[in-house]
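Quick entry, no commentary yet.
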Amino acid sequence: MDDKEFLENVKQSISIEQMELLLAELGAEPQRQGEILTCRTICHDGDSHKLYYYENTHLFRCFTECSEVFDIFGLITKIKQRENEKWNLPQSLNFIIHYFNLAPKNRDDFQENEELLEDWEIFKKYARIKRIRVIIMSSIKIHKVIRMILCV
């Protein structure tokens, strides 16, 4: 299974009900109309309900400022980039997989495809590195504050 196929499988595994819950949690105020969700334009922090999600294509379309078409990974990336400039597709994929609990539970889930299991290990390493980086940055800031206090 290649990367594009994998992303498509993840998108296909998310039901419209699950998407509705995620969008509500993100503050999109989704309103369901059959197989379409209309939402607040959270892709650019707008107030109008002109962001549409189509269940049949698993795509969003914004009918205001950005006028773009994107999938759930693109939406998460857009939202998170407003908070953190360095947010990217792998982080959005990781967010969605963990939010919907789509990560494989154990090795038996991937007996046929060991390469896929190794790919999941990368996400685990990334999460550990990120936590370490936060701890180090926090320690550096604490030391700077201590030095400022002691110098005064």
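second:
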Amino acid sequence: MKQPVTKRSPGCSLLFSDFCSDYPSWNRAQFVVDSTQWENDPLYGWCNKNYKKDGSPYNVYSDGLKVFTTIDSRIQQYAEEAMYQHVARYLQPRFSAEIARKPSSPYSDKLTPKQIKKIIDLEPEGNAFVRLVERKNGQKAFLRLFNDMEKHPSEAEIGVMFKRFVMDMPKVGFLTGHGERNVNSAGERFYYTFARSIYFRQSLINQGFDPSSESGNEIICCLPGRKHSVIHC
């Protein structure tokens, strides 16, 4: 939400409808949500609801505003320690012990591996933990965890997943057949990691590209709005 720069006379309040132009037509639902918060939450948009003596709105970064809270930092620390004791030293060990007795979890123990595979096949994902995203039309995609400190997918990887639902991703061709390193082999230094590893966040496949191996006798053509084509020379 943009902060207005115009000055207003005292008593002249700003309406949330003044921000309507900031919302594109496809995001009107968010405008309804924000306008409801504007009306019901006195702290929502506080700087745009209150004005200085000269009639200009407050700037949260440069006007020296102070926030006072009743939270006691010592009590907050005790609460966090109590939560850690309860979750990490009580709940998690019991949960892990329960899961250990159920090798087919979260599915029924009565299901065989083949039956589970019919429900969801995670072999292409290395049988690792993933989040399944499914559209109403039946399209499915996985959100992966990555081998780095952040672990969870960021906005970039989530955006790639949604793009794959609706468009063909750019194709990156790697020359092969002439002694070049093979991007399909995990033993070729970090070439495979860079191109195809599903566990490496920055790999091409996780950043919206489809790597492929091509011989020198083919030309890859990628036209906007069309699927890639391969021309044999």
